Amino acid sequence: MSDVHPVLIAGEWRAAASSGTFRGENPASGEALPDVFPISAWSDCDAALDAAVEAAEALRTTAPETIARFLTRFAERLEVRASELVDAAHVETGLARKPRLADVELPRTTGQLRQGAAAAIEGSWSLPTIDTKLGIRSMLAPIGPVWVFGPNNFPFAFNSVSGGDFVAAIASGNPVIAKANSSHPNTTRLLGEEAFAALRESELHPSTVQLLYRTSHDDGARAVADPRTGATGYTGSRGAGLTLKAAADAAGKPIYLELSSVNPVVILPGAIAERGDALAGELVGSCLMGTGQFCTNPSLVVLFESEQTEGFLESIRQRLDATPPTPLLSRAVARSLGASVAELRRAGAEVVTGGSAIEGPGFHHANTLLRVSGRQFLAEPHALQTEAFGNVSLAVVVRGADEALAVLTHLEGNLTGCIYSDTRGADDAVYARLEAPLRQRVGRLLNDKMPTGVAVSPAMNHGGPYPSTGHPGFTAVGIPASLRRFAALHSYDNVRAARLPALLRDANPGGRAWRLVDGQWTRADVPTNGA
After folding, report:
1. Interval 23-35: pLDDT, tens
2. What is the pTM of this model?
3. Same domain, 318 and 378
C-alpha cells in the first residue's frame, strides 16, 4: 500500500492520528486512485483546535497588510502550479480541464483570494461605526477558529482550503481548519501545500491554515460545537449539513450552510412564442453544465400548457438525447441521483427521456427530463421538490396563471429563481402576479437569464431561504458581505482612544475604510474638538 499522506496541524505536516484510510476515485472510470489519505481521529481535531486558538490570538494583533500578503501570495503560487492542480482536479472530479477548470474555476479562485486581500486592507467590511456624542464605537471583529467543510462540485473555488468560505474567514482575521471533501483529497492536498508555503512567506502564524482530510460524522459534529470553535462554513448535502447544524445550534455556535436548491425557472407563454428554440438551447445548456452538479442548475421548470409548450418540451428532449452524458462527481452522487429520480417518479413524475443510470465504467446517468402537471405538483409539492443533484430536471406544466401562482407559493427556499418573459410586454401582467411570491422564496431573482453563473461581485447573493441555506441573511459569494459571517460585533463604550482598534480611532488609517460617523458614511477622520 502507498504511504498515507500526512495532515497539516500546528504548523507541520505530520502523520494523522488515524482511525482508517480512504482513496479518491476517478469518476470517469470508477477506478480507485493511488494516493491514500487518513481518516483523522478526534485527537487530530483536538490538536488542530488548540493550535487554531493560538493562531486566533496572534491574528488579533496582525496587520491587515500581512493577511493580505498571504492571500495574494497564495493566489500567485496557485497560478504557478496551475497545470498540476488542473490535472489533479480533472482526475478526481471528471470535470473538463478546459475551459471549466483551467480557464474558469481556477482564475475565479485566485480572483477571490485577491478580492479578499483587498477587503482585508480596505476594512469597510467590518462596518466601523462611531457615535461621538455618546462615546460609543463598534465594529465587526474576528470570531475565532473557523471550520470549513468544502463541497464536491467545485474543487478550487469552494475548496475548504482555497475557496470562498476560506477566503472570507482568513480575510476577516480568523484561522481556518479545513476539512477536505473526500471526492478530491489530492487536489486539496496540493492546495494545502501552497497555502502552507504562502503562510511561511508572509510570516502569518503557522497554524492560520490547517488541513484534515476526513473525520467521522460524530467527530465532525463534536468539532463544530466545541467551545474553541468560532464558527463553521459548510457546503454539501442537506442531511449532513443539518446534523452539523443541530450540534452547532445546541452549543450556540454560528454555522453557515449551503444545502440544496431546485432553482425554479418560469418560462411564460410569450417567451416561448417569441424565442422558444433559443430558450430550449439555453435551458439544456444550463441543466447539463457540470453534469447538472452546480448548486444553481435549474432542476424545476414551470411551463404553461399549450401546443407550443409541447413543442418546446420536444425540442428539449431532442437536445438532451443528442448530448453525451458527462461523468458524475462520485459513486455517492450517482447513487443519490438515482434515489432522487425514484422519489420523483413515486410522487407522480413521468419520464420524458432518460431516467436511469448508464451501465459501464465510471459514474454516469442518462440526461433526464421528467414532467408533471401543476395539479400533480400541488398534490405532493414536498416530494416533487426533491433535489436531483445531477443531469435531471422536472417540468411542471400548469393550466394558467392561477395554477402557476399556487405552484410558486408551495416552493421551498432556493438560491435562485428566474422568469423568462416576452421582450415586447405580452407577459407583463402575468409576470406582475408571479414575481412577488417567487421573490420571497429565492436569494437571487433573475430575468431572462439562466442561473448557473455565480459572479464574484459585491452585489451577489449566493444564499437564500431554507433549505437552500441555513440563514437567509448571509451570502457565501460576494466580498465584502461574505466576510461578515465570520465576525462578532464588538462595541466600545467610553474606551480611551489609545485602547481602541485602529479603525475606531479618530484618524482613519490610510483613509481607506468607509465608517459611519454620527449617522454619515465617510472616509474622513473624525473631527477633533476645536477643529
Report:
1. 999 999 999 999 9
2. 0.95
3. yes
